[in-house]
Design brief:
By secondary structure, this protein is α/β, with parallel strands linked by helices. The protein folds into 2 domains: about 110 residues, 3-Layer(aba) Sandwich (Rossmann fold), CATH 3.40.50.300; about 270 residues, no CATH class. Helix content is about 40%, strand content about 20%. The protein has an 8-stranded mixed beta sheet with strand order 7-6-8-9-10-11-13-12, with helices on both faces. The two termini are about 25 Å apart.
Length: about 400
Amino acid sequence: MAFVCGPRQVGKTTLSRHILEKEGLAQGYFNWDIEKDRREILKGKEDFWRKRLGSARNPCLVLDEIHKYPRWKKFLKGLFDSIGKETRILVTGSGRLNIYQRGGDSLFGRYHLFRMMPLTVGEVLSGGKEVEIPEESVTQLLNAATFAQGKEASEAFEQLFQLNGFPEPFYSGESKTLVRWRREHRELILREDLRDLTRIRDIGLIDALVGLLPERIGSPLSLNALREDMDVSFNTVKNWIQTLDFLYYVFTIRPFSGKLARTLKKEAKIYLFDTSVIESEGARFENVVALHLLKACYVWSDFGFGDYSLHYVRDKEKRETDFLIAENGKPWMLVECKLSGTGADSSLHYFSEALKPRYVFQVVRDLAGDDFFKKNKNIHIVGPSRFLSYFP
C-alpha cells in the first residue's frame, strides 16, 4: 500500500482522484467522510470495492480519511492480506498515518509512506520533472553560472511569501481568497479534526493557544511560558502542541547536539504550515525557509535517497544557527536566514567550523537578481528565490 499524508487542503484528494481518472478507475475512490462510502466499507469488509471495480484489470483503490475509522489499522491489515496481491491500495489522510497506538495491529512491511507538503519554489518551477538526488541539486546550485529562471523564481517566492503554499490561495493570487481559505482551514482542523480524531473538548482554549503561536516562531518554545499564559498544566500544553503537530497544523524541529558538548538538547522550535498568519517579516521568512527544508528532507527520505532530518543548533553561549539538515544522523547542511546584509553570521561561521557540514548557506531575504551569489570562505551567501529553486 501507499500511504499519503499531509496537511488539510494540500491536495491529497485531488492527487488521488487524478491518479484514478488517468487510469479510468474513478469509481475506486472511497471517502470515509461520505456516508454512502462509509456504509459500503463497513458492510462489505474486504469485498466492498468489487461492485465498482470487480471487472477492472489491475484495479486501484483510494481510501481517503480512513484513519477516522476507530479500527482502521485492523481493517487495512485484513484488506491488504486479503487482496494486496491483486489490487493496488492508496490511503490518504490529514492525520499522521505513521502513528500507531501501543499494542495496536502493526502494518509494518505492508505500506510505503509519502508525505505531501505545501507548494515550494522548486516544485512550482519543476514542470513535473523527476526528483533529483540531494547532491545533484546542491551541485547545480553551486555551479550554475547564471540563473535562467530568476524572474519566475522571484515571482513564485514572493507569492508563497505573501500568501502561502497551499494550492487554493496560492493559485488564486488574491488576498481575499486567502482570508476566506484561512478561516475555513482553521475551522476544519480545530472543529472537525479535533472532534473526530482526539478526545479534546476544550476547543476554545486550543483556539486561544493557536493565536499565541505566530509570535513564538523561530525561538525555542517554552512550554512553561505557554502554560502560564494559558493558565493550564504543563502536560496539558504539551499534549495540545503534540495534537496540533499530529494534525499537521504545526511542526517542530529539535536541536542537534551531535558531538558538541554545550548545545541545547531539549527545547524544540515551532513553525506553522500556514505561514500567512505570521505578521513579523523575519519570522515569516524563517518559517517559509523551514517549510522548504522540511519538505526536502521528507522527499529525499521518502524516495529512498537517505535518512534526512531537519534540526537547529544552539549552545549555552546562545550562539544559534537556524537550520541544520542531517544526513543519516551527521551534519550535512547548515542554513542561516537573514533579512538583509551580506556579511557572514558569526554563529554560522562558528558552527560551520565545529560541525564541519558539507554545505553552509546564508539565505538573505533582500538579495535578488543573478549577481547575488557570493562566497565567504566556505559560507555561500544567496537570495531565497535562487536557493529554494533547487529544493524539491
